[in-house]
Structure formats: C-alpha cells, structure tokens
Amino acid sequence: MTKDTIIAFSQAHAEPSWLQERRSAAFDKIDDLELPKIERVKFHRWNLGDGTIAESEYSANVPDFTALGDNPKLVQVGTQTVFEQLPADLTAKGVVFTDFYSALEEIPEIMEKHFGTALTFDEDKLSAYHMAYFNSGAVLYVPDNVELDQAIEGIFYQDSTSAVPFNKHILIIVGRNAKVNYLERFETIGDGSEKATANISVEVIAQAGSQVKFSAIDRLGANVTTYISRRGRHGNDATIDWALGVMNEGNVIADFDSDLIGNGSHANLKVVAASSGRQVQGVDTRVTNYGCNSVGHILQHGVILERGTLTFNGIGHIIKGAKGADAQQESRVLMLSDQARSDANPILLIDENDVTAGHAASIGQVDPEDMYYLMSRGLDKATAERLVIRGFLGTVITEIPVKEVRDEMIEVLDNKLDGR
Q1: How far apart are CA 295 and CA 185, in angstroms?
Q2: What total number of domains does the chain contain?
Q3: Which domain holds residue 10?
Q4: Cβ atoms 180, 401 nearer than 8 A
Q5: Is residue 401 part of a domain?
Q6: Given 43, 221, 294, 358, which residue has the most CB atoms within 10 angstroms?
Q7: Which ranges of 115-183 would DSSP assign to H, the alpha helix?
Q8: Looking at the domain assignment, is residue 25 inside a domain?
Q9: Bridge partners (DSSP) listed for residue 216
C-alpha cells in the first residue's frame, strides 16, 4: 500500500484537506513509531493490519431491525451504514448521530476541532496505522446543555464472510453541561471463516460539566485479531462512567484510557473480561490525573477458561501539579482451569505529594468452600460454579446502567461456560 492509494481513498470520499493531510502524515510516521507497550503481553508477531484500505461489499448478513427497539441508534455492517434512527426532537436540539462521512458534511468545523484530540496519531505505531487506514466510522454530537433521556446505541457488525479490515473510528463529542447515555456493540455476525483484522479507535470528548455514561460489549469472532483503543478526554468537572465488557473470541489487545485534563473531573472505569480456548487478551486500563481534585477509579474483574490468557494492567498516573487528585484501582482474575494463564499488574506513577492513591490485585481459583456450600444445598457442580462466577463479576456488571446490556453480558458469559 502506498501513500497515493490512501490519498485516492480519501479523495474518493471527499474528505477535507485537513483530514487528507493527517492521513498522509500518519502514513509517514508508521515505520518510525514503536508498538504500544502492553505489559506482559506478547503481541508483536500478531497480524494487526495488512496495509490495505477498502470498503466492504453490501452484506447478506443484515440483522432484523424490528428486534432492536425504538431508541436512537446507528447500525453498520462492515463499512456500510444499514440503519439510522434519530427522533426529530433530538435533531431539533442539534444532536447529530450519523456515519463519519455524513458528519463531515453536517458539522465540519466541530469535526475538524475535535477529531484526534483524545488520541493523537503519533502516539504509537497502531494509532498512526489507524489514522492512515481507517475506512469507516460514526459520530455522536450532543450540543451544550442538552440532556438525553433515552440511551443512544451504536451497533457495529463485522461480517465473518469478509476479509476487509474492520478499521473504525468512533467520535463522541458531548458539549458543556450536556448528559448522554451511550451503548456500543462490536460484534461478528455470519457463518463465514475469513480471517480479518480490526483496528478500532473510540474518542470521547467530555466538555466542562458534561456527564457521560458509556457502556460497551465487544464480541468480535475467533478469526478477528483486534486492537481497540477507547480514550476519554475530560474537561473541568466532566464525568465519564465506563462499563466495558471484553467478550471477544479472538486475540485482543485493548487500551482503555481517561485523561483527566480538567479540574474536578471524574473517570470510573469498570471492565469485565472473559478468555477461553487458546485466546490471548491483554487489557491496559489507565487514568491520568492532570487536573486538581480529579478522581479516577479502575475496577477490573475477569475469568479465564481452558487454556486462555488474560492480562490486566491497571495504570494510575498523577501528573505534577494535580493537587488533591485521587487514583484508585482494583484488578481481580478468577481462573477456572489449571492451564489458564493470567496477570493482574497494578502500576501507580505519582508525581505529586498532596494526593490519594491505592491499588489491589489478586489471581485465584474458585473457592472450594463456596462450591461446597452451594453443592450442599443441592446444586450440581456446573450450576454452583456458574453462580460463583456471576457473583464474582456481579460487582462490575451491576454497575452497567442499561438492563438489556447487563442481561446480554450474563448471556455471553453463560455461553462461554457452556462451550467449555
């Protein structure tokens, strides 16, 4: 793939000059940058992109929209948008929820101002690759002082019959004192077996005083090798509550970060993950406190089945000058097999004195006393084990604000357990 091919793709989609220039600059940076550092995860030989940029064909694997409910939503299959639903009253308030290229036409100045501000393209090799090669995406824009009662849902399907890279850019811009509840799904559909790569970047720009509840379930298939980055940028007194379910079947490295730029800003990151088979998943969850009196809390719980591998890296970094900052983290992993492998690594980087910080980490197997108690009440071993796992993960799952998402996450876990 040459730079000319990338520019030709950009021009074919009528991208503005500033975006063409960023793609070109990112392409030039790829070879000079290092891969992101995910502690204790060996992913350097993974295929995380074959250097192609293309659109997918229209797929026969289109979901049944009548089963998706009537809340605001956007559905894409591959690079194609197949469904949009945004009530007229939200449009009248200035809310935009559409595909990436439509947003470039509807809110060009806002796009140019905010695109790439949470995750810059020169941060590492995979962020530069993403900027050069992303081929589709979506944008949610909520103007100042607008409060949304209904959850807004983005559903992004990867077609298992297509080898086109699943390189998506999701940009969420929440104005001053605005409120939004956003639900996101990445999922593989169809009965194909094409090997594919995914490079996904999600930026959440939470401006001063805004409140964002962000829930996600990732369910990409066994034939998809994935890098996913979710990055929040917090203004003064802005809050993002993250509830993330990492339930993929293939190898994954994930980077979930919140940059607490503003004074009094808050980030709560809750992550549930499950690994099975020979799957490798590495999850970096980081909060960086820049603002005074900023608060960042990380809670990660995971389970490992069969010969799976799961690594949690929790990183709390308090920058010099962030007086009164608070950084807390907890990472716990439950192993259900003697062949499972896991790491839970707490990392605290403290550059300021007047702060509060702490961490906890544990790795273990199902408590025999818990199993004995449940089985003595008449439960079989499989049911007892399932209840123990639900209880272990429940401290995170119950924090998800949408009941349907909680139920879906439990269903995915049960399916993984049944597939052992």
Answers
A1: 27
A2: 1
A3: 3-366
A4: no
A5: no
A6: 294
A7: 125-133
A8: yes
A9: 184, 244
